[in-house]
Write a structure and sequence with these properties.
Blueprint (H helix, E strand, L loop, with lengths): L7 E6 L3 H9 L5 E5 L5 E5 L3 H7 L5 H14 L5 E6 L3 E7 L6 E6 L8 H10 L6 H8 L9 H12 L16 H9 L5 E3 L4 H14 L9 H24 L2 H27 L1
Antiparallel strand pairs: 1-3, 1-4, 2-3, 2-7, 4-5, 5-6
Helix pairs in contact: 1-8, 3-10, 4-5, 9-10
Length: 274
């Protein structure tokens, strides 16, 4: 059974916490970051913006999480999986780079309302086994009176354990947001993500780039072209978000602008050192 305050969400990133943390700062949301298995991290929102948004006729939890996932993934070389649920539905959205996000939805009683093609695209983008894993995913799209939305989400996570994902005990789809936050806070490796200003956020990202293997890929004509494209795409998205008062679009635009500026700054910084 879902809780009296059923809306909740998790962001799963296929990257180490040390890499995810600086990128998550750009969302400008308070979150808790913890390891979620081999090469996976989980972000747990400390706030519930979908509640304030619903009171004002704004964005529901799925659109809020979709905006966050898209904003995180658009400037990163790793995918982001948003899991969300409310009183009526549960679902996921996978964002990866500039590609169109893919998602699936179940009604509260477990009735699938997504498209089979979305599950195939999901499997391909995460590099899942096209036979064994797809069989498990396809079962989630078959009507089953014994499986509610929570069971469907747990079935999805069971498939992802084969990629190394292991959520900390208690961080379970269907739990209320307050419960998820309390569980995340007691994790031994938890890190609080807070917005500290653009300067600190950019410096943190530069530090990650410098200490990782992706630095060389952020240099040269192709890197400068990508940074310019990010700036060009980020500006209209930011304007669109402001006009529609959409937190998701606004965040995605701001993150694109930040990553574009970061790419140009890193290329210039390294050129000056050489």
């Amino acid at each position: 059974m879902l809780s009296p305050e059923p809306a909740g969400a998790l962001l799963l990133c296929r990257a180490e916490p040390a890499v995810v943390g600086p990128a998550a700062q750009l969302l400008r949301e308070r979150m808790l970051l913890a390891r979620a298995g081999r090469e996976w991290s989980v972000l747990v929102p400390e706030t519930k913006p979908w509640l304030a948004a619903s009171d004002a006729g704004g964005e529901p939890v799925d659109r809020v999480l979709g905006g966050w996932a898209g904003a995180l993934a658009v400037g990163a070389p790793w995918p982001v999986l948003a899991l969300w649920w409310d009183a009526d539905r549960s679902g996921f959205m996978l964002a990866s780079g500039f590609r169109r996000p893919v998602g699936y939805v179940w009604l509260a009683n477990g009735t699938p309302v997504g498209e089979d093609e979305a599950l195939r695209t999901f499997a391909a983008r995460l590099g899942l086994d096209p036979v064994l894993d797809m069989q498990s995913l396809e079962a989630l799209a078959v009507p089953d009176s014994e499986a509610d939305a929570r069971a469907r989400m747990l079935g999805l996570l069971a498939v992802l354990t084969r990629t190394g994902l292991t959520l900390p005990t208690g961080l379970t789809p269907g739990e209320p947001a307050d419960r998820l936050r309390e569980v995340a806070r007691i994790q031994p490796d938890v890190e609080r993500i807070e917005w500290s200003g653009w300067r600190d956020a950019v410096h943190a990202e530069l530090d990650v780039v410098e200490s990782s293997s992706i630095g060389p890929w952020l240099r040269g004509p192709k890197a400068r072209c990508l940074a310019a494209l990010q700036l060009a795409a980020g500006l209209p998205l930011t304007v669109h978000g402001l006009r529609r008062r959409s937190g998701g679009w606004l965040t995605a635009g701001a993150v694109l602008l930040a990553h574009g500026a970061l790419g140009l700054a890193y290329d210039r910084m390294r050129a000056a050192r050489d």
